[in-house]
Design a protein that fits this description.
Blueprint (H helix, E strand, L loop, with lengths): L1 H7 L1 E6 L10 H9 L2 E4 L16 E4 L11 H13 L3 E6 L9 H10 L4 E4 L4 H8 L13 E5 L10 H5 L3 E5 L5 H10 L7 E6 L7 E6 L3 H8 L5 E5 L6 H4 L11 E4 L7 H9 L3 E4 L3 E5 L16 E4 L2 H13 L11 E4 L2 H8 L14 H7 L7 E7 L5 H8 L3 E12 L4 H9 L2 E4 L2 H11 L9 E4 L2 H11 L4 E2 L5 H11 L2
Parallel strand pairs: 1-4, 1-5, 2-3, 2-4, 6-7, 11-12, 11-18, 14-15, 14-16, 16-17, 18-19, 19-20
Antiparallel strand pairs: 7-10, 8-9, 8-10, 13-17
Helix pairs in contact: 3-4, 13-14, 16-17
Length: 496
Amino acid sequence: MMEMIERTGHVWLVGAGPGDPGLFTIAGAEALRRAEVVLYDALASDSLLSHCNAAAELIPVGKRAGHHSATQDEITALLVRLGSQGKRVVRLKGGDPFVFGRGGEEALALAAAEIPFTIIPGVTSAVAVPAYAGIPVTHRGAAATFAVVTGREGGDSTTDWDALARVDTLVILMGAAGLAEIACNLIRAGSPPETPAASISHGTLPSQRVAVATLESIAAEVAAAGLSTPLITVVGSVAALSGQIAWYVPGPLAGRSVVVTRARAQASQLRLMFESLGATVIEAPTLEVVHRPVPLVSGDLAPSRWDWITFTSQNAVESFFEILGDAGLDARALETTRLAAVGEATAAALARHGLRADFIPTRATGDSLAAELPRVNGARILLPRGSQSEDRLAAGLRARGGRVEEAVVYETLPVPLDFATCERVARADVITFASASAARYLAQSLGELQPAPSARLVAIGTQTAAAVRRAFGRIDAEAVEPSLPALVAAVLGAVP
């Protein structure tokens, strides 16, 4: 069966969930990893795209209220065409595909074209968003039934308002523009005007806001509070529980957008750190790391010939061991060679290969490593590094009498950003830089666009800060040490 899918093409209709990337399903992530093409909605979290294969083609198809980049007919036709070409395609839809997601229409079209497809449900916003606002859609003694209705244009013309007025809990999706009309329809159908109601904007996200009122006044309360789409409204006695059960407390970066410029494969840890603090993360992978084949296992660069191997980044560690693996070797090839790591993150990368760093300097900098590495005079030292790494470490070790050989084991290449991503970066509250290369490549991608004057530009270290200043004319904050936790702390200190 799997061979047939791979050969003939397959389409996965995947629910992205309500917004919080932590609510995405394992099955959905696996589909993204397999996909050759991904068509994604604006309501699907950008961070979910980190699950995609690096070679996958990513196609935004919009579908945010009033701003469609593609019509539904165009999206459906594209799914059929790609599936007919034998492609593995994911249609990533906000919420659940079968809850006002038009997944049924897409599935019928695929079935008619005899294209194999799979439905992967998502956590529906109809239940999850109220839950994040402390509202259970059912509650013993208060609500035994609930219904979900579209709120577009005040409700569908076929909506049975009399029936909905008798439901214990009514959940209204996409009802921002027609909320006043919906309330009037329900009241005319028999719902008491004083029925509790709550509207949740950007539910499950750090920017979540909640307005609690009555059915009669909820539209005015939403307008007064300035709540924006996406908006979900709950009508029923359970809406009054919001204040009692409220549990979701946005972090200190709630409502802030933070740009992560690391390579896509390396961005996840930093993204999760910022998301845990409530930030909306914009991934802008300005570079990719490409391992460079080097004959490390023979001749002058054989690992066992060296007294020390000094690693200055996780990239250097991973590239070094990939080269060993390509040669059919593993850590045993190092024999008695001692290993130095510039900092704890690099040491952790060594640990993932079953090795302990023999030396870590007091500060995670190349200068500290050069100054503090023991028994350098006369020692044979191998320095695996990137193509754009500065040579200060090598120079410092040579000045102490070390016999240093540099091996370029990886290079960083620019990744052009699409215009939509560049626009989001230019509007962001914070832009973070974990390398000098990221600063240079982001400036190239942005071109004439510039970060907003209010944006905070934050660098992981001194060399990166200098590169940011050269690229953008300023730097707003610098981490006290070159580590991801310190970078996050610098962001927290820089944001007013």
